[in-house]
Amino acid sequence: MEINITAKLSIDESEIDMQAIRAQGSGGQNVNKVSSAIHLRFDVNGSSLPDDLKDKLLSLNDSRVTNDGVFVLKAQNFRTQEQNREDAIVRLCNWIKAATVEQKPRKTTKVSRAVKARRGDAKKQQSAKKKLRNKVDF
Hints:
Elements: E1 2-4, E2 10-12, E3 16-21, E4 37-43, H1 51-59, E5 70-75, H2 81-100, H3 113-131
Antiparallel strand pairs: 1-2, 3-4, 4-5
């Protein structure tokens, strides 16, 4: 089954390894018996993503990516395994989608002559104001 990330980008569900594990934290008597949390592993290097996107994902300074290039995610926000599975897939898609967004190149701007003149005038006024605070000679 295909998981669509963007209109042009999708990954196969077989590329994602998901295991049910026990969730941490409080939950009463049920917490020790039910494996409702999902441990998701996604091998970036072994995926069908384009090479430039793989490089961008691996170059991100993300603590969820191991040295081997495996993205590891733990989803335990919900009570049911199905909801946690959906949450893990959505979070993986959002992570990949964030890397596909191209940042606009910054246009360098120049300070205009009028702005420089106003700044100079303001500095002169401030200087004159401070000179008036000096001691007066008699």
